[in-house]
Amino acid sequence: MVPSPLSKKLTIVVIGRSGSGKGTQAEFLLKHLGKDAHHVETGRILRHLLTRQNATTRIANHIMKIGGLFPSWFGAYAWLRELIEEGCADKHLVFDGAPRKIEEAELLDDVMKWHGRQRAWCVYVDVPEKDASLRLLARGRDDDHPEAIKNRMRFFKKDVLPVIAHYAKQKRLIHINGNKPMEEVWREIDKALAKKLKQLWLSQ
Q1: Does residue 1 surpass a pLDDT of 60?
Q2: Domain ranges of the chain
Q3: Is the pTM of this model over 0.85?
Q4: What is the DSSP string of the chain?
């Protein structure tokens, strides 16, 4: 069997509670991987989609305002568009905020396998709920009101923790204490990925 030309392309998903700083760590990852990397920032993609006016986006806008969790097919549509329409499947991929449900994590594995890529590694930036909530309140974005934050934290427990368990079971999880200065968090992520991926990470 001929090896896939994409077999050395990395897929890293950064998961954490809202307010955990996962977006900042995704940026560090992208900087390390260089110009041959693509940021799959699902929140940004979804907010762009929701500027359109139709029956689907009206429901989705309501979900976003109350801090609800989108169905797995909606989140998957956001990142599948990046692969199919933007044509970024030949790059290192850094997912920020996805997958958020177990079905989506399994779909991502299937999509990477279809492309001849390695399955995703998960970096879990772990920040306690109370601290993450305080960070969000300080951020002050329109959808960062107390009720929405409470809902997001509840959905994290219900839907995202099983995703983290999925990666842990398959030994593809890097669990990082995110309640430290962002540069220190990054150094721990860098060290852990180097240990797991060895030359594939160090050569980037």
Answers
A1: no
A2: 11-202
A3: yes
A4: -PPPTTTT--EEEEE--TTS-HHHHHHHHHHHHGGGEEEEEHHHHHHHHTTS-SHHHHHHHHHHHTT----HHHHHHHHHHHHHTS--TTSEEEEES---SHHHHHHHHHHHHHTTPPPPEEEEEE--HHHHHHHHHHH--TT-SHHHHHHHHHHIIIIIHHHHHHHHHTT-EEEEE-SS-HHHHHHHHHHHHHHHHTHHHHT-
